[in-house]
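Quiz preparation item.
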């Protein structure tokens, strides 16, 4: 169980997707800094992405976690899967996500899997195309999840009942 910043346990799951090390050459040698990509979710439809940079790994992860908690979004799910197939875009990355039957599991790469599992999706198929940059892939997966609509949402927009026809 993850702990929030007040020390109390929260229902959020935190996943560190990627830690990147960058070097700056100075007079005495190289000075390293780190960046961390963190995904946070409650496995019930709320998920957030955070990106933190610091001189230490733990500080970068902490900053990324705080950023992810600030950027929590609600996702429209249908049981333990998604309502329909969708494509998410961010930068040069493209992520295709499709619902799957019970028992399939999460078929996805590491970056997309982190977002889907944090959101609470249990049965889904996905494929990433073009760029494999983890930052862009996680943002493309979140973009896809945010554009999902359930039947009730479409009915409300159109002012009709699709279930009766």
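Solution:
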């Amino acid at each position: 169980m993850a702990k929030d910043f007040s020390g109390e346990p929260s229902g959020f799951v935190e996943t560190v997707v990627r830690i990147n090390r960058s070097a700056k050459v100075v007079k005495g040698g190289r000075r390293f800094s780190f960046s961390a990509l963190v995904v946070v979710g409650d496995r019930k439809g709320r998920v957030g992405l955070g990106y933190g940079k610091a001189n230490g790994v733990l500080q970068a992860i902490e900053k990324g976690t705080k950023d992810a908690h600030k950027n929590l979004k609600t996702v429209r799910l249908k049981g333990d899967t998604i309502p329909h197939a969708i494509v998410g875009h961010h930068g040069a990355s493209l992520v295709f996500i499709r619902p799957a039957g019970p028992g399939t599991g999460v078929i996805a790469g590491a970056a997309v899997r982190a977002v889907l599992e944090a959101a609470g999706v249990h049965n889904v198929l996905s494929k990433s195309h073009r760029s494999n940059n983890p930052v862009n892939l996680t943002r493309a997966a979140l973009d896809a999840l945010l554009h999902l609509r359930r039947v009730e949402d479409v009915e409300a927009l159109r002012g009709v009942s699709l279930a009766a026809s």
